[in-house]
Design a protein that fits this description.
Length: about 170
């Protein structure tokens, strides 16, 4: 849940950027690129990745309630929606930087969706899902998952920058 607090802070910054755009004020396209990187690496690959690749996979081996199954399915769909909007935000920002000022409306649309999506998503995870589903796991299973989470986090930085090097090697 600590990760949620940092994501909430970034969402607050998205709100500020959206407000600037809505008020026809200057905004920093580099912020959008940095926000996309944050959402792709931290929110999606790191945070959602641990949920989907570790926690949800472990839950598949448990007999969970229909309610928890429904919530897990909703969370997965929300992760997909977030990915799609972050991708769209990046593409619109790239076009804006190339001089297409019409992309501002698309940028605002993607920002609105992300600002609207994340607060209830985080609240759902914090209050309706993460704590209750821990009852499905023994103390030992919880500790093993924490170890897997730690190892997952440790690998992210290597994965990210290996990809950067490989991208430029192909150019």
């Amino acid at each position: 849940m600590i990760e949620h607090r940092l994501i909430e802070r970034m969402v607050a910054l998205l709100k500020k950027a959206l407000s600037r755009l809505e008020n026809k004020e200057n905004f920093n396209p580099q912020f959008i690129f940095d926000a996309v990187d944050f959402f792709r690496t931290y929110a999606d690959r790191t945070h959602h990745g641990k949920e989907e690749d570790i926690l949800f996979e472990e839950l598949k081996n448990k007999k969970i309630s229909n309610e928890h199954k429904r919530i897990m399915d909703e969370l997965i769909q929300e992760h997909i929606l977030a990915r799609e909007n972050v991708k769209g935000l990046l593409e619109a920002n790239e076009q804006y930087v190339k001089g297409d000022s019409k992309e501002v409306d698309k940028i605002m649309g993607f920002l609105k969706t992300l600002v609207k999506l994340y607060p209830p998503h985080i609240k759902k995870e914090d209050t309706q899902f993460f704590l209750p589903i821990m009852d499905y796991f023994t103390e030992e299973e919880q500790q093993n998952m924490l170890k897997k989470f730690f190892e997952f986090d440790r690998q992210i930085i290597h994965e990210k920058y290996k990809g950067t090097v490989e991208k430029y090697e192909k150019m």
